[in-house]
């Protein structure tokens, strides 16, 4: 298979196929097995530019660490306050300029549609690192890679996605990606935080059931994927007050979970996974975050090089 990622924008997991996902995971395995010299030769002299207009810890730093690990370097701004957009410059003008300084742009922005707009303007590829409540495709890539490594497969699993399904962009990218596999999905959310109905058309092929409480389904799940309430995206603070602290994964819940289940979370965690769960062998969210660096390194190497490292 030719390298389908070469110079391509990564905006939505809806734009991807299962074969492309497999290629990315194989490239990630290959990169993890390389010695430092081999790895550093993949993107030597290349530049990544990150533009993060919303807070981030893992996504930005793992992209930076990934780029450094394949020999490239990163420049960028880590908050809207640092850029000339504070002076009134448009996103389009900003993208046009940084496009000429770098080989790939990684953008996080509070508006849905921001990454598509950036991709239309930039001549170099754009990676969507979070566009409003819409999508966060590289998070889904590392989520699936984690499931593959920790469970040995994706097909055939029963996957529970718990929490703020209305505003969590990671959930949308994950569901669009899961639609390429044969899985049973259980969506667990308080009624006010259910999945946005208009997105369901893109998940047609998935077997989905919805639940109000994790207790209804926890004993059957292979994967328990938890999300934080996205407080900053609520248009009405009163609505947030109604749902805050409305669910928690703790030892009471895990007592009923399968012994071979895994607990994932895109992080940051607030109060939806109790801290004592960290010492449960089923908690894999920190491992998940650590896979993020290598999945992103593989993605960057594929996007920047015509010849894939596989
Ligand atoms: C997520 C995000 O920004 O959407 N964070 C991340 O990249 N791992 C999840 C969140 O903020 O809750």
Bulk shape: globular
Rg (CA only): 19 Å
Number of strands: 9
List segments where confidence is low: pLDDT < 50 over at least 5 consecutive residues. Answer: none
Main beta-sheet strand count, sense and barrel state: 5 strands, parallel
SSE order, as H and E?
HHEHEHEHEHEHEEEHHEH
How many angstroms does the end-to-end distance come to? 10 Å
Hetero groups: N-carbamoyl-L-aspartate
Query: Helical proportion?
Result: 25-40%
What topology, given as strand order, has the largest sheet?
7-6-5-8-9
Q: Under CATH, the topology of the largest domain is which? A: Rossmann fold
User: Into which percentage range does the β-strand content fall?
Assistant: 5-15%
Average pLDDT figure:
96
| Structural class by secondary-structure content | alpha/beta
CATH superfamily of the largest domain: Aspartate/ornithine carbamoyltransferase
What is the total number of structural domains? 2
CATH class of the largest domain: Alpha Beta
Number of helices in the DSSP assignment: 10
């Amino acid at each position: 298979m030719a390298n389908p990622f070469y110079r391509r924008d990564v905006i939505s997991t809806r734009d991807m196929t299962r074969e492309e996902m497999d290629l990315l995971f194989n490239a990630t395995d290959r990169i993890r097995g390389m010695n430092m010299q081999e790895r550093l030769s993949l993107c030597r002299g290349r530049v990544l530019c990150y533009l993060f207009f919303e807070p981030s810890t893992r996504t930005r730093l793992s992209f930076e660490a990934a780029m450094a690990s394949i020999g490239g370097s990163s420049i960028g701004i880590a908050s809207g306050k640092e850029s000339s957009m504070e002076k009134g410059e448009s996103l389009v003008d900003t993208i046009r300029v940084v496009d000429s300084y770098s080989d790939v742009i990684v953008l996080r922005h509070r508006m849905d549609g921001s990454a598509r707009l950036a991709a239309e303007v930039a001549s170099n590829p754009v990676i969507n690192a979070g566009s409003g409540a819409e999508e966060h495709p590289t998070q889904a890539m590392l989520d699936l890679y984690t499931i593959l490594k920790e469970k040995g497969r994706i097909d055939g699993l029963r996957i529970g996605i718990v929490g703020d399904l209305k505003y969590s962009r990671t959930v949308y990218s994950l569901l669009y990606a899961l639609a390429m596999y044969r899985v049973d999905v259980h969506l667990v959310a308080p009624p006010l935080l259910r999945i946005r109905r208009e997105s369901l058309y893109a998940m047609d092929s998935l077997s989905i059931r919805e639940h109000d409480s994790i207790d209804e389904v926890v004993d059957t799940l292979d994967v328990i994927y938890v999300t934080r309430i996205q407080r900053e995206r609520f248009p009405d603070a009163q609505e947030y007050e109604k749902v805050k602290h409305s669910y928690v994964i703790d030892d009471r819940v895990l007592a009923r979970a399968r012994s071979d289940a895994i607990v994932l979370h895109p992080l940051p965690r607030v109060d939806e996974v109790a801290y004592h769960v960290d010492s449960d062998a089923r908690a894999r969210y920190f491992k998940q975050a650590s896979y993020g660096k290598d999945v992103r390194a593989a993605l960057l190497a594929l996007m920047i090089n015509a010849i894939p490292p596989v």
